[in-house]
Amino acid sequence: MCLAGSLIMETKLKNYPLGVYTFEKIRNGNYFYVDKTDYVYEIANKYNYVFLSRPRRFGKSLLVDTLQCYFEGRKELFAGLKADALEKDWVKYPVLRFDMSSIKSMNPQEVKDAISVMLLRYENLYGKVDAEKTLGNRLEGIIGRAYAKTGQKVVLLIDEYDSALLKVMHNKPVFEELRDMLRNFYGPIKICDAMLRFGFITGITKFSQLSIFSEINNLMNISREPEWDGLCGITKEELLMQCKPDIQALADYMEISFEDAVAGLTEHYDGYHFSEGKKGVMTDVFNPFSVIKCFSTRRFGLYWYETGTPSFLFAEMRKYNTELQNIDNQTVNESDFNVSPETAVTALPMLYQSGYLTIKDYSRITNLFVLGFPNREVKNGFLQSFLPEVSNIPGGEGNAMLVRVVQALYADDIDTALTEIKAYIAAIPYYYENKTEPAFQTIMYLILTLLGQNMRVEVPFAVGRTDAILETTNTVYIIEYKVDKSVEEALKQIDDMHYADPYLADPRRKLKVGINFTTESRTIESWKTVES
Predict the structure, then answer these.
(1) Signed CA dihedral, 158, 162, 167, 168: sign only
(2) Fewer CB within 10 A of the terminal residue: the chain, N end or C end?
(3) Which pTM value belongs to this model?
């Protein structure tokens, strides 16, 4: 190991805060922490009311808890951090915090009961008036009494405000009932403006028909402001400056170089961009949960998906007949992805706002954005979750099939690989929509993409686009498939479009693969391979 690496490893690693979302515990327990307290200071002293949208597991709850500790004047927790040098007064404010993600029910009455319990906690602290019956009345009363009792304006923190709404957004009657109830609860924010020092609201999306957005005139949505790109998550600069010992420990365990460890972290967990950036330079942001989990387990895994892909996302894609092959690397206007779910006409806004797509590029000349999967973790995890949705076959069976296909391909046994794929598609229940060309293309896109990083699908060439290219140690597979046609037509297209030409100088074996799918049998009918 180089001397620099040895010096880095002399630094004792901190504990990793897996499942720890409280600032106090992180600070007192010697946990790994990327210092964001300068952001906390700036945001608390620049705005009155703030809304921040970020994907799940991106550090929003820890940010809210840090804000709570800051406004409670807990100076000792910030010792040695950036806010300690910025804040001089450390005033203690009464803080009301509501964690809406803790409500797991989709039943409006149960959601109301859960909020009522949260309100009761503050009514026990500041007093209760029997005449206050609605959630909004009770919140307004608590704010007024907290202000009167402490002599300080109140800080209101609402974490994951949209959590309950997202669960029922495709059940219109329940959604509307829940939305009206939450509108009543959030209503006092504007009414109590004179008694509020600061309000901070987090969520995934912005439901435009809630009064929380339509009635608060000075609510600042900082979700797409370049100044706050690094507010949640870990920037590339922070990773290299504050995480050197952890990166080196990962590299040592995996027996790779420090540079290769950074490259692996970048490939798997980087790539999020929340704005077009300053002066055309976007801020790269890593998923903090996944980076910390990787440091802890010492392996590159798909950690963001441990709790699964939200069902509302697949429902959104079904609602708008979203073609899976078209969601990556598409060029759009900002109005195509930065809109409320109530006014959306595609699944694109929800895919972007929930973190499955991110801004990959931006043109100041055309004012157009390119959206795509942020990194390998999100793309592979999303596709793995999506495969059972389109096949109705349990994910474990699909994963086992993929393993067998990979093993066959790397043994140069294309026939066994395609036999496995044929059997998998044939097992899809008859009532599932896999009888059309788009349905078959979606399933093949999923399977081929999930085979690994050496498989490229929808590969563009000078005169066309082939369905897939797979490169193994010994062979380059050039794959083209047809529906209700013939394998000869597929092979002819490979020849006519010269898909093999870029590999003419490649010493490896080149194998052209033509595949035909029939809507009658609803699976692969035949295939043929020809040496190029």
Answers:
(1) positive
(2) N
(3) 0.86
How far apart (Å, rounded) are the C-alpha atoms in residues 84 and 152?
A: 22
Q: Which residue has the tokens 């028909």?
A: 209
> How far is residue 234's CA from residue 57's CA, in Å, rounded to a whole number?
12
How many CB atoms are located within 10 Å of the residue 372 CB?
A: 18
Tokens of 220: 């600042």
The secondary structure of residue 14, as a DSSP letter, is P
Cβ pair 22, 29 in contact under 8 A = no
Q: Alpha-carbon distance 478 to 471, whole Å?
A: 9
Give, in order, the Cα–Cα distances in Å from 196 to each of 266, 388, 405: 41, 48, 60
Give the pLDDT band of residue 4 (cuts 50, 70, 90).
very low
Tokens describing residue 63 = 């940010």
Alpha-carbon gap, residue 49 to 38, rounded angstroms:
18
Q: Look at residue 456 and give its three-state secondary structure.
A: strand
Q: Does residue 160 register a pLDDT over 70?
A: yes
Kind of pairing between the strands at 234-235 and 196-203 = unpaired
- Going by C-alpha positions, the residue among 184, 214, 220, 177 that lies closest to residue 201 is 220
Please, how many CA atoms are within 13 Å of residue 123, restricted to the half-sphere of its CB? 17
φ/ψ of residue 244, rounded to 5? -55, -45
